[in-house]
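FORM 7B: Structural annotation worksheet

SECTION A. Query
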Amino acid sequence: MEKIYYSSFNSKIGTIHVASTRSGVCKISIPAQTKKEFLAWLQKKFDGAELVETSTKNRQIIDELNRYFDRRLVKFHSRLDPVGTEFQRHVWSELKRIRYGKMISYKELAKRVGVQRGFQAVGKANGANPLPIVVPCHRVVGANSKLVGYAAGLKTKEFLLRLEGALPV
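SECTION B. Predicted structure
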């Protein structure tokens, strides 16, 4: 039986839940998602897996996230194991190429993944990202750098972009 290891910690944006498989980090929930919703997502995506709460298995990603919030980390190194379709994983892979402190538009992201007019498909894949912050979907903005679409809310998106220096303080 597969085991999914999960942990929770307090961050500068609120309580964050993280989960990992043997292969890497599979889920990060930002404060808009409750622990109950987080666990339900894990049960749905990993049907039949044993969910194990731990304070040790996710230390690296928790440390990296804390260093990110303290402006001491700009690139994550934890192994990742995102669950998604081939198209979603392609979009998420492209998100990881957006450098710290930079933003791109949904139009540019669609162009980068080869679906010039696929703004909606790219937006949905972006919204389904199970690893926010580490896979930086917050760095994708609307036309004219307008802040749009973030599961944790636009205030959190704005906070993250200001933290990285992409928006003036």
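SECTION C. Observations
The chain has a mean pLDDT of 93. The domain at 3-69 is CATH 3.30.160.70 (Double Stranded RNA Binding Domain).

SECTION D. Sign-off
Analyst initials: ____
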